[in-house]
């Protein structure tokens, strides 16, 4: 299901989308809308400086889409929680 400009994907739709691409840019989880990516994708993007603190921040999500641990900026990469499976990224 493609993003139609008005209705962001659900968490489950976003996860399914991630099987085909690295980031789903329009996902809504618990009333917050952002770009959903796997933990591995976020870590790789931070490693290559594609995300920096000025760009925004992300919420840590479990594999079930539950929020854990609060917000995370790229400079806090060492504090990512073990149970974090996904990041919902919010651009500035």
Structure characterization notes:
The longest helix has 9 residues, at 39-47. The chain has 92 residues and is of the alpha+beta class. It has a 5-stranded antiparallel sheet with strand order 1-2-5-3-4. The relative contact order is 0.21. Helix content is 17%, strand content 35%. The mean pLDDT is 93. The radius of gyration is 12 Å and the shape is globular. The protein has one domain.
Question: What is the compact description of this entry?
Answer:
The protein has 92 residues and is an alpha+beta fold. It is 17% helix and 35% strand. It has one domain.
Strand order of the largest sheet: 1-2-5-3-4
Count of distinct strands: 5
Poorly predicted sequence stretches spanning 5 or more consecutive residues:
none
Q: Give the integer mean of the pLDDT values.
A: 93
- How many helices in DSSP terms? 2
Largest sheet: 5 strands, antiparallel
Oligomeric state: single chain
Helical content class:
10-25%
The N- to C-terminal Cα distance equals 26 Å
Q: Tell me what portion of residues adopts beta-strand conformation.
A: 25-35%
What class would the helix/strand composition place it in? alpha+beta
| Strand and helix order | HEEHEEE
Gyration radius over CA: 12 Å
Number of separate domains:
1
Overall form = globular
């Amino acid at each position: 299901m493609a993003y139609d400009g008005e209705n962001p994907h659900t968490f489950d739709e976003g996860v399914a989308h991630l099987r085909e691409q690295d980031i789903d840019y329009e996902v809504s989880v618990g009333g917050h809308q952002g770009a959903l990516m796997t933990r591995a994708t976020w870590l790789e993007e931070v490693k290559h400086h594609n995300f920096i603190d000025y760009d925004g921040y992300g919420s840590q999500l479990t594999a079930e889409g539950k929020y854990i641990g609060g917000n995370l900026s790229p400079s806090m990469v060492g504090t990512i929680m073990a149970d974090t499976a996904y990041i919902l990224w919010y651009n500035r």
